[in-house]
């Protein structure tokens, strides 16, 4: 039983290949985690770093709260099962399974007990006297699993263990490994390039591409709420259908005009998570719909609001028995083109043939929209930003006829009908001059997402816990104006992440002792033991010649009333009044940082930084090392 924590894990191979970038996740005890992605995306490298078979270039790996970066593989209490079984050909199955226990000098009777028990679990008792060459592929894989089980490891790592087996055996072994996980109640981490394997086995799945995590979620959430086009296309068979499109909003009506011809009409409430800026009739988006969320209609269309009618011309029909897959095109003149191609998962009793023009319906609830350039979802389950339109007059922001006096820190030029971006996290409910009506509420895990009607706009706010308000409640709200963007008026969010260049130094205290410091310009900050350990673990003595960037968040900085040694000291150059919050810009001679403090210009301040919250970046390779 074990939990794992991977923080900012990087792997750079000799020659500079960045195989894994900033891999961060917590794995709870007894989870079945699957790493999935195309070949070369960094799955095996990550697994091998967990096993200790590959050095971790930067980052922190904990097993049960203990940092194990420098532990030998044998000291990590982990067992790994490989694709190519790696059995000893000259030993019997029994001896293969007993091998690691023998080298650990476990008494014979204990070995016998463990091996026979594992053999029983795996159903290979009758083969214990055979040599591996007298076993089938599936049986050999069971022996490989048995070798792992007898060691009673805290964590099981499995690297594509089924890829050498034929399709039928693979399916059977998949179920067997899932049962094994339930029986052993241990943490499993499983690597595969096969999304079906990932979906059927994982309690959570990590989708990777080009060394980066794309999304971590449960199988069902990856399927229903993919964060980007890669995940949307990778998870689910047949693949999601994608169409280039533009969006037009006319009051409460919204139209998705597909580049291949037809339009999909719906009410604004079905698509209000898509930021308004995309609904300008010209910004390119990608409309996505899964083959399961399209249906073939045989009778007259009745608009119940949930399904949008379209037509398609049939290209190919695959009758699979339990279901029928129809390959068609929304452009009725080009059945075989890629543009306009749509795959439909239909009932097995749908009888259509090539050339037929069929009436189809697309779900108005279960569709996806992506930014054409970034390929990120713009209909996220929890929106990050409210991107809306507003007017500025006399430093007052007007949104849907409601006025928000801008504080003195913001000097906005007068503009009409301009884009205003308000992070969802910058809206707080219960107080303030804003008035809204709760239109809808979604509980997503521990987050409550409020759909607030403000005039004809929907604005999102989120809170942790359970809902404090009900649908149709009138609520007041406040906007943290330090975080808004009004591009046309040059208003940018106040940067609360401070980055300063620096180095790490040692100073001799006496003959044998050194003091270590984080040096930023002329300032010296005392590091915590944790920081020292991590810097040395990562760079060794080379740390003293490395250019670093120290990054700290404004919320982790406080102002001290008395001078103390080894703190940052600077002069206030600007005081920013954001109404509910006040900030000062402090000049440290080597850079300027923002603190939440209302001081006087020219005042000298001593800053206390929660050093354990600092992020440290190795500047030359742009990698987070602490
Ligand atoms: P996956 O398991 O997802 O197929 P890997 O983790 O094996 O991917 O590889 C990730 C990247 O690192 C690939 O670009 C691969 O070529 C590279 N790589 C893997 N092992 C080494 C190595 N020993 N030396 C240099 N590059 C490597």
Descriptive account of the structure:
With 626 residues, this protein is an alpha+beta fold. The chain has 4 domains: 230 residues, 3-Layer(aba) Sandwich (Rossmann fold), CATH 3.40.50; 131 residues, OB fold (Dihydrolipoamide Acetyltransferase, E2P) (Beta Barrel); 104 residues, Beta Barrel (OB fold (Dihydrolipoamide Acetyltransferase, E2P)); 128 residues, Nucleic acid-binding proteins (OB fold (Dihydrolipoamide Acetyltransferase, E2P), Beta Barrel). Helix content is 15%, strand content 41%. It is built from 9 helices and 40 strands. The strands form 8 sheets. A 6-stranded mixed sheet has the order 6-7-8-3-9-10, with helices on both faces. α2 packs across α3, α2 runs parallel beside α4 and α3 packs across α4. The model has no long low-confidence stretch (mean pLDDT 93). The site of adenosine-5'-diphosphate has 11 residues, from α1.
């Amino acid at each position: 039983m074990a939990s794992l924590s991977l923080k900012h894990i990087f792997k750079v191979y000799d020659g500079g290949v960045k195989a894994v970038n900033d891999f961060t996740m917590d794995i709870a005890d007894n989870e079945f985690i699957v790493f999935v992605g195309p070949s070369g995306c960094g799955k095996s490298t990550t697994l091998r770093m967990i096993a200790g078979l590959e050095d971790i270039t930067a980052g922190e790996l904990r097993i049960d709260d203990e940092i194990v970066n420098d532990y030998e593989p044998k000291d990590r209490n982990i067992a790994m099962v490989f694709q190519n079984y790696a059995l000893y050909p000259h030993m019997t199955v029994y001896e293969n399974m007993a091998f690691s226990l023998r080298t650990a000098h476990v008494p014979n009777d204990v070995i016998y007990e463990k091996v026979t028990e594992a053999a029983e679990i795996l159903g290979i008792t009758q083969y214990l006297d055979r040599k591996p060459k007298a076993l089938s592929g599936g049986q050999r894989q069971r022996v490989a699993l048995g070798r792992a089980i007898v060691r009673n490891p805290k964590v099981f790592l499995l690297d594509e263990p089924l890829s050498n087996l034929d399709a039928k055996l693979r399916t059977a072994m998949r179920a067997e490994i899932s049962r094994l996980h339930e029986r052993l109640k241990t943490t499993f981490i499983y690597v595969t390039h096969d999304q079906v394997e990932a979906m059927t086995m994982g309690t959570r799945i990590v989708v990777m591409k080009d060394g980066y995590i794309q999304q971590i979620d449960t199988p069902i959430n990856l399927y229903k709420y993919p964060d980007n086009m890669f995940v949307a296309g990778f998870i689910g068979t047949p693949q999601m259908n994608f169409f280039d499109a533009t969006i037009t909003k006319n009051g409460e009506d919204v139209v998705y005009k597909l580049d291949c011809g037809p339009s999909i009409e719906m009410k604004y409430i079905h698509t209000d998570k898509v930021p308004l800026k995309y609904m300008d009739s010209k910004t390119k988006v990608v409309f996505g719909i899964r083959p399961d969320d399209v249906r073939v209609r045989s009778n007259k269309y009745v608009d119940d609001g949930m399904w949008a009618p379209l037509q398609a011309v049939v290209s190919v029909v695959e009758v699979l028995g339990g279901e029928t897959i129809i390959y068609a095109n929304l452009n009725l003149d080009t059945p075989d083109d890629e543009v306009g191609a749509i795959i439909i998962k239909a009932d097995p009793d749908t009888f259509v043939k090539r050339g037929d023009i069929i009436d189809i319906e697309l779900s108005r609830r279960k569709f996806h929209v992506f930014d054409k350039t970034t390929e990120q979802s713009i209909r996220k389950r929890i929106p990050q930003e409210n991107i809306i339109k507003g007017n500025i007059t006399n430093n007052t922001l007007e949104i849907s006829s409601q006025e928000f006096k801008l504080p003195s820190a913001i000097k906005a030029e007068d503009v009409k009908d301009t884009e205003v971006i308000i992070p969802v996290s910058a809206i707080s409910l219960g107080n303030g001059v804003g008035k809204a009506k709760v239109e809808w509420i979604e509980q997503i895990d521990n987050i409550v997402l409020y759909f607030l009607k403000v005039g004809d706009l929907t604005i999102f706010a989120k809170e942790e816990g359970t809902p404090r308000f009900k649908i149709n409640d009138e609520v007041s709200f406040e906007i943290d104006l330090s975080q808004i963007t009004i591009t046309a008026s040059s208003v940018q969010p106040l940067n609360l992440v401070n980055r300063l260049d620096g180095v790490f130094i040692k100073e001799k205290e006496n003959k044998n002792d050194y003091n270590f410091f984080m040096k930023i310009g002329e300032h010296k900050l005392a590091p915590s033991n944790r920081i020292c350990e991590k810097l040395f673990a990562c760079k060794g003595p080379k740390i003293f010649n490395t250019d670093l960037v120290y990054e700290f968040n404004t919320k982790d900085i406080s102002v001290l009333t008395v001078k103390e040694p080894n703190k940052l000291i600077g002069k206030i150059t600007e005081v920013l009044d954001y109404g509910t919050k006040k900030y000062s810009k402090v000049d440290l001679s080597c850079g300027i940082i923002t603190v939440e403090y209302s001081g006087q210009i020219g005042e000298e301040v001593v800053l206390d930084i929660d050093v354990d919250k600092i992020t440290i970046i190795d500047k030359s390779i742009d990698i987070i090392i602490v």
